Amino acid sequence: DCMKIAVEKRENALLSAYNTNTDKIKIARETRKNDLLSAWTIITTKERRAGINQAWIKCKQSIKSAQLELLNTRKSAWMQFETDRKQCNVSATGESETLEILPEAGQ
Q: Is the pTM of this model over 0.90?
């Protein structure tokens, strides 16, 4: 039972981290869309290009930030799992964070 609790705790933390990451990327892309649409209302070419570039830069920064947060949260979940596993007096399970497939930062 101890390990089932540890696994459930880890998996819930990972699911939450991935859901948060997905939500943040959706927000970044929605913001980019809105910023691009606004930029295309600008009459002067120079200012319009600046608005378009800024929309893409802002989106890229938001996605990178979300990915970094995901990696840190994921690492914490696995570290906590290892602590919990040891408290359950169970030897290594063969599970590790390297088994997970991560989304790419530039998605």
A: no
